[in-house]
Amino acid sequence: MAPKKPKVYHVGILSGLDIFADAIDGFKAKMTELGYVEGQNIVYDVQKTNMDMAACKSILQTFVANKVDLIFVFPTEPALEAKAITQGTNIPVVFSGASIEGVDLVQSVREPGGNITGVRFPGPDIAAKRLEIFHELVPWAKRMLVPYQRGYPSIPAQLDALRPVAEAAGVTLVELPADNLAEVEADLQTRAKSADIGYDAILCLAEPLMTTPDSNAVLVKFSAERKVPIGGCPVFEEGYGSIFMTKPDDFENGKLAASLADKILRGTSAGTLPVVSPETLLWLNYKVAQELGLTVPEGLLSQAVEIIR
Asked: How much is the pTM?
């Protein structure tokens, strides 16, 4: 009798937003640690769309048609699509960087239910933390512009967490919902014509519109010209940039997701595996803080995983 061929697992990976793409490397690295050797006992079909939802649906439908053994997907909207498209199949879904508050992604953290589990993006916690850090850095900023993608599913929960923190700090949130970058630019241009632009700082939430390179560049340029502090969004900009960023590490998120995937491939039902909440990290742009004449408290410096000088 010929020896039984070892199982080769097929995993479909959908990166729905480029800024989270390091999760793929983390996922593969951890899967290798767990004994899955690419090309031998596991094959990855990696697809990227950068928030093209029509493409997301098409890719997920292809994964289902190909009967992959598991789908790894991020962030929120693609994860929701994956849940919907895999209904009625036995294909498990593991998400990363997806918000679970205010969206129908899981039943609960402890028992996500159905065929899905993953690593959440702690959006409400991060929103509140960003404002607290910003207030510590610029206590004189009493009006904060908050631009965000209109209708994005994770926004309401973030704003709900943000508002009481802002009220306690004596900060007024100047919300700027927009469907696209053109609307944001139009608003900024209108404000630029006034002696008072209507806010003292810009606070970024975790959402797709203002985290794309083009949008981020618009905010950074506008802020630089007026010496307006901006915080929460990516800090790795040439010249002027955001003072700080707080978020989980996407590579580590991928590793956490791989640990869940391993359990699923070994027979555990995805819906019985509790959703994982990752650690939130802090990056500080000390160079920008100095250019703005800000004093960075030692407590924040000690918390930062990286300080740009």
From this structure: 0.86
